[in-house]
């Protein structure tokens, strides 16, 4: 049996071999591709003949899977699986497991970091120092006492709530289903958008959440409010957000995710909007998260081989 890791996992080959030794049969053939595939043809070529495939967040669509007649299991080293052709996998009895939980701390910390970066005008402060200027015009804002709205109360949303509470924020949250969260108030999405000083998004990308935050929702926000998106790009209407920023209808945005993986097109509306901190999808990318992710991904393969698949999507 053969396992192919089709893209880098933030590990060295020695680290990958150590995980194989700890969790997988030693007679299992493993191929670790430590450079990103250039296109779909290369993805398919790399995984050809493998029963087990491990991938991260590069798209793995039907046209790739159609070339892989031997594949039985996908270990997705990522939380979301919207980049995988799940309908095809289900129709062809390909089991898919994800690595939910590995980046809870990393993503929630970035959400708070983006909020602080906007409130303390860190980009402008950096530019001022480099230009030989003073702190004039750089009066900041504190998180403490602000109304912090969290959209999506899964594991990452809950961790973000806890961090916001630690900073002294008054926390509101919206979730598809109400859940008991100590010290946080459950409200409708409309109310959350209206009352929050900070809106932080933590929902998966589904048919229901695509475009969840559009022109109508953004129009409900305070003029002084900021929007943080570390979830998925298509959850937000980027043009509507950029327009609101350009017209001064909201105060700022911190964005780590886009409609596709960076690099993004030069005409993307958020590239030309004011008061925005943009990051190239780094929310999950910490040393600690990469280590957690790899362990879960290998344990998922171990569980599948034992006939007891876990984290199945």
Descriptive account of the structure:
The protein is an alpha/beta fold. It has two domains: 2-102 and 287-306, NAD(P)-binding Rossmann-like Domain (Rossmann fold, 3-Layer(aba) Sandwich); 104-278, NAD(P)-binding Rossmann-like Domain (Rossmann fold). Helix content is 34%, strand content 15%. The protein has eleven helices and twelve strands. The protein has helices at residues 13-23, 40-47, 62-65, 86-91, 104-119, 122-130, 155-166, 189-195, 215-219, 238-246, 287-305, and strands spanning 2-5, 29-32, 52-55, 73-76, 95-97, 147-151, 170-174, 184-186, 198-201, 226-229, 252-255, 276-278. The chain has a seven-stranded parallel β-sheet, sandwiched between helices. A five-stranded parallel β-sheet has the order 2-1-3-4-5. Helix 7 links the parallel strand 6 (147-151) and strand 7. The chain starts with a strand and ends in an 8-residue tail after the last helix. The mean pLDDT is 97. It is an enzyme of class 1 (oxidoreductase).
Index terms:
313 residues; alpha/beta; Rossmann fold; 2 domains; seven-stranded parallel sheet; five-stranded parallel sheet; 11 helices; 12 strands; 4-phosphoerythronate dehydrogenase activity; NAD binding; phosphoglycerate dehydrogenase activity
SSE topology:
Blueprint: E1 2-5, H1 13-23, E2 29-32, H2 40-47, E3 52-55, H3 62-65, E4 73-76, H4 86-91, E5 95-97, H5 104-119, H6 122-130, E6 147-151, H7 155-166, E7 170-174, E8 184-186, H8 189-195, E9 198-201, H9 215-219, E10 226-229, H10 238-246, E11 252-255, E12 276-278, H11 287-305
Domain D-isomer specific 2-hydroxyacid dehydrogenase catalytic: 5-310
Keywords: NAD, Oxidoreductase
Domain D-isomer specific 2-hydroxyacid dehydrogenase NAD-binding: 112-283
